[in-house]
User: What shape does this take?
Amino acid sequence: GVLQITSWPVRLSQIFCKLVKIAAHFATRPLLLLLSRICPECSHDSPQAHLYPVTLAVAFCLIAILSTVISAVVARWGALLQIPSSFLGMYVIAVGAEIPDTIQSVAVARRGYGSMAVSNSTGSQIINILIGLGLPWLICCTAGLPITVHGHESIRVMALFQAANVSLYTLLLLLATACTWRRGDHSKARLDRRKGIVLMFAYVM
Assistant: This one.
């Protein structure tokens, strides 16, 4: 009798998880069907590998459209709840924007390309700052349109935190291998569990 009572929560959780999977399958099926038509699969050595320019162009357009929608929704949400836009940009939009990069870094890291995973996480931030900010500002300034930046104090504080995070990242990943910066030395930097915990803790803080 005790075994049957204790198994009920497990049984209910399994049923709930199965129902969630079924609901997610039917909810995402139209989207997956649409993506399979407009964004063909072009994995390496696949029959449709020659279609990678089409997939790249369509993916770029979809990311631009969805990013615009997310920005508009978050901006409206912040206006209704009276939440500063700098706070929403730092936490809500930033987390949502980095999910694809995180998935991509994990995917290549599992294949044994650790350097590619680290380069992806670093290069995406460089593009976000230099191109994501520089190109729109260049276009607006060229067209003579004003650029209004609100919340200077909040942005300044966030910039200081970002500088501290970059310094911590450099210290853990790059400076730890300074003794191997010699000609012919092919030693690699290591990002172990302890360093990962430190980076996650720094993000939470």
